[in-house]
Write a structure and sequence with these properties.
The complex is a heterodimer of chains A (227) and B (368).
Chain A: H1 4-37, H2 43-55, H3 58-69, H4 74-81, H5 91-117, H6 120-127, H7 132-143, H8 145-161, H9 164-170, H10 180-189, H11 193-226
Chain B: E1 4-12, E2 15-23, E3 28-32, H1 39-47, E4 53-58, E5 61-65, E6 74-75, E7 83-86, H2 98-106, H3 118-124, H4 140-152, E8 158-162, H5 170-186, E9 191-195, H6 198-204, E10 207-212, E11 215-221, H7 222-226, E12 240-251, E13 256-260, E14 266-270, E15 279-285, E16 289-292, E17 303-313, E18 319-328, E19 331-342, H8 343-348, E20 356-361
Helix pairs in contact in B: 2-4, 4-5
Chain lengths: 227, 368
C-alpha cells in the first residue's frame, strides 16, 4: 500500500484543526466573555448569529463563504486588495471557513463557564484592588478552565470532522485542501475500501479517545472543586 | 472634612433607597434592619459595587459625585477605593489555596501601602495552620475567617462587612465573634457592618443606623439608642440596654464574674471568658430587669441597684417598658437600663416618673 495518500490528509487535517483551535481561542474568548457580561439588548441577536452554524447545513455556510470570499465578493475584493489573492480552494480559506463553522462550539462552553462562575468572584477581586483586565486574567480565566478545555477539545474535534464546508470552500486538492473526511469520501467513490476502512476506523478511535479524555479530565476537575 | 458622607437616592422596581448619612469615621457603625430594608443595597452603593445616584465622600476623598450643579459627575471604580469588603458568603477563590487567597489583594499593594502586615493578619484570625489548604476543605467558619483576613490584608481605610456571620451556624458564629471583637478593639479603622442580629449589634456596634424600607428611621450611639424608649431599634422580647463594664474578678467556684459598671457599682454576671480588668459590653434584656420599692430580702436575685424611673411606655397590651437610670450616693449616673414589667405591677406599686426604686437584675439573664 502507498502510504503517502493516506498520511498526507491526516497531517493536513491535524494542521488545520490545530491552527483553527488556536484562532478560535483568540476570537472566541472575547466573544464569550462579552456575551457572558453584557446587558446589551442586542445580546440575544448576536448570540443567535454566533450559533447559526449549529443549525445551518454546512453546505449553506460553505456556499455563502465561497460567494463572500470569492473574486467577486466583498471579502474577496478585500483579500485581493491586501495582495493575498482569493481564499477559496486554499488552505488559508479552509482555516477561515473552519473558524466560522466551529465558533459556536467553542463560544458556548466558554460562555457557560463564565456565566456559571457568577459576578461574585469578580466583585471580590475588585474589592481586592484588581482592575478589570487583572480580574479577567487572574480570576475569570482560571475559574473558567474546565470550559476552556471543553471548548478546545470540541473545537479541535469538530474541525477534524467537518465535511460539507470543506468540500464547498476547499474542494479536493491533495496536500492543500484534501483533508481526512474528503479523502474518505474520495476513496469510497473510487471503491478503494481498504483505505476508506483504515481512515474511518482511525477516526472512530480518535473520536472515542478525545471524548474519553475530556470526560476524565473534567471529572477530575469536578472532584477537585467539590472535594 | 472628616467623617463619612453617604447620600444616595435610587429606585429599583418598587424599592427606593433614600438616605443622607454623616457617619463617624471611627469605630463600628451597624447598618441595622430587617431583610429588605436596604442595608446591603446601601453598603454596595458605598463600595461602588452597584451604582446608585448620589454622592459618597470618605474623609477628604470624593468617591462618587453625581449631578452637583456644574461639577463633573464622578464615580471612582471599586478597585480604586481604599476599602475592603467582606461578603455574606466567604466567596474565596476556588482556584487558589488559602495562602493564594490571602495574597491576592496583598500582593497588589506596594510595600509602603501595606499598613497591616501578613503575619499580623494571619495571627489575628488564627490561620497559621491552614495556609496551604484549599478553600473547599475548610469549614464555614474557617472560610469566613480567611475572607476577613484577606480583606484586612489590603490595608483598607474603611472596612465594609455585609452580614459576615449570617450564613454560619451558631457554633461558627460563636467562633468568629471574638475575632471581630478583637479587631474592633485593636484595629484603628472604621467599620460599617450590616446585620439584622441584635446580638452582633450589642457586641460590636458603637454607632447604629436603623433602616426601614430604604430610609433611616433611627441613628445614634449604640448605648443611647438601645436604652432609649422612643427610638428603639429592637422591639418586643429583644429590647434591652447595653452597658460597657469592666471585669473586676472571676469567681470560678460559682462560675460568676464580677463587673464594674461605669458608675462604679458592681454586678455579677455568668462567668465570662475574658480576663480581669478588660472592658466588656453587657446587654441587659428588659425582661430580666424587675422593679421593687424597697431592697428585697431573701431573694435569689443577685444584682439589686438603686435607680430612678426616667420614663415609661406602654407598648404591648398589659405590659410596660420602663427606662431607669442608676443612682449612686453622688446622684445620677447617666447609666440607663430598660425594664419590662406588667401594667398591673406598675399600677399596684404606684410607680411614676422620678420615683426612686430598686432595679433587680437577674445575673443569669445578662448577655455578652
Amino acid at each position: 500500500m502507498d502510504w503517502q495518500p493516506i498520511l498526507q490528509p491526516v497531517w493536513l487535517t491535524l494542521k488545520l484543526a490545530t491552527l483553527t483551535t488556536l484562532l478560535l481561542l483568540l476570537v472566541g474568548t472575547p466573544i464569550a466573555w462579552w456575551l457572558s457580561q453584557t446587558t446589551c439588548r442586542f445580546k440575544h441577536a448576536i448570540s443567535a448569529v454566533v450559533a447559526l452554524p449549529i443549525v445551518l447545513p454546512p453546505t449553506v455556510l460553505g456556499f455563502y463563504l465561497l460567494f463572500f470570499l470569492g473574486p467577486n465578493g466583498p471579502g474577496g475584493a478585500f483579500t485581493q486588495w491586501l495582495g493575498l489573492g482569493t481564499l477559496p480552494f486554499t488552505f488559508a480559506g479552509l482555516v477561515v471557513a473552519s473558524v466560522f463553522y466551529s465558533l459556536p462550539f467553542v463560544v458556548q462552553p466558554m460562555q457557560n463557564a463564565f456565566e456559571a462562575m457568577g459576578q461574585r468572584p469578580l466583585e471580590v477581586a475588585a474589592t481586592l484592588r484588581a482592575s478589570p483586565w487583572d480580574r479577567f486574567v487572574s480570576v475569570a480565566l482560571p475559574l473558567a478552565r474546565p470550559g476552556f478545555l471543553t471548548a478546545m477539545v470540541i473545537g479541535f474535534a469538530h474541525t477534524v470532522g467537518e465535511f460539507g464546508v470543506v468540500l464547498m470552500m476547499g474542494g479536493n486538492i491533495p496536500g492543500e485542501t484534501k483533508v481526512l473526511s474528503v479523502a474518505i469520501y474520495d476513496h469510497v467513490e473510487t471503491m478503494e475500501y481498504a483505505q476508506a476502512h483504515l481512515l474511518s476506523a482511525g477516526m472512530v478511535g480518535f473520536a472515542f479517545l478525545v471524548l474519553l479524555g475530556l470526560y476524565l479530565v473534567n471529572g477530575r476537575i469536578d472532584r477537585q472543586v467539590r472535594a | 472634612m472628616s467623617g463619612i458622607q453617604a447620600r444616595f437616592q435610587s429606585r429599583r422596581g418598587d424599592f427606593t433607597l433614600d438616605v443622607d448619612l454623616q457617619l463617624p469615621d471611627r469605630g463600628v457603625t451597624a447598618l441595622f434592619g430587617h431583610s429588605g430594608s436596604g442595608k446591603t443595597t446601601l453598603l454596595r452603593a458605598m463600595a461602588g459595587l452597584d451604582r446608585c445616584d448620589g454622592h459618597m465622600i470618605f474623609r477628604d476623598a470624593t468617591w462618587q459625585n453625581d449631578g452637583q450643579g456644574d461639577t463633573q459627575s464622578l464615580f471612582l471604580p471599586v478597585h480604586q477605593r481604599a476599602i475592603a469588603y467582606v461578603f455574606q458568603e466567604a466567596s474565596l477563590f476556588a482556584h487558589l489555596s488559602v495562602r493564594g487567597n490571602l495574597a491576592y489583594g496583598y500582593k497588589r499593594l506596594s510595600a509602603e501601602q501595606r499598613r497591616i502586615g501578613w503575619d499580623a493578619a494571619v495571627e489575628w484570625l488564627g490561620l497559621e495552620a491552614m495556609l496551604d489548604r484549599s478553600p473547599a476543605s475548610l469549614s464555614g467558619g474557617e472560610r469566613q475567617r480567611v475572607a476577613i483576613a484577606r480583606a484586612l490584608l489590603v490595608s483598607p481605610e474603611l472596612l465594609l462587612m455585609d452580614e459576615p456571620l449570617s450564613a454560619l451556624d451558631s457554633r461558627s458564629k460563636a467562633e468568629i465573634l471574638p475575632y471581630l471583637e478583637r479587631l474592633h478593639r485593636e484595629l484603628n479603622i472604621p467599620v460599617i457592618y450590616v446585620t439584622h442580629a441584635v446580638e452582633e449589634v450589642a457586641r460590636l456596634a458603637d454607632y447604629i443606623v436603623q433602616l426601614e424600607a430604604g430610609r433611616v428611621v433611627a441613628q445614634g450611639s449604640a448605648i443611647d439608642l438601645l436604652s432609649s424608649l422612643t427610638q428603639r431599634p429592637v422591639e418586643g422580647e429583644e429590647a434591652g440596654a447595653l452597658i460597657e463594664a469592666t471585669i473586676r474578678q472571676h469567681d470560678d467556684a460559682h462560675h460568676l464574674s464580677e463587673l464594674v459598671l461605669p458608675c462604679g457599682q458592681l454586678i455579677l454576671a455568668p462567668r465570662l471568658s475574658a480576663s480581669s480588668n478588660t472592658p466588656v459590653r453587657i446587654r441587659i434584656p428588659a425582661r430580666e430587669v424587675s422593679i421593687s420599692l424597697n431592697v428585697p430580702e431573701g431573694t435569689s436575685i443577685l444584682n439589686i441597684l438603686p435607680a430612678r424611673i426616667i420614663d415609661h411606655t406602654e407598648g404591648d397590651p398589659g405590659r410596660v417598658l420602663v427606662q431607669l437610670e442608676l443612682l449612686t450616693d453622688a446622684g445620677d449616673t447617666g447609666v440607663r437600663l430598660l425594664s419590662r414589667i406588667s401594667r398591673y405591677s406598675w399600677e399596684r406599686l404606684g410607680l411614676r416618673e422620678g420615683m426612686q426604686v430598686q432595679a433587680q437584675i437577674k445575673s443569669m439573664g445578662l448577655e455578652r
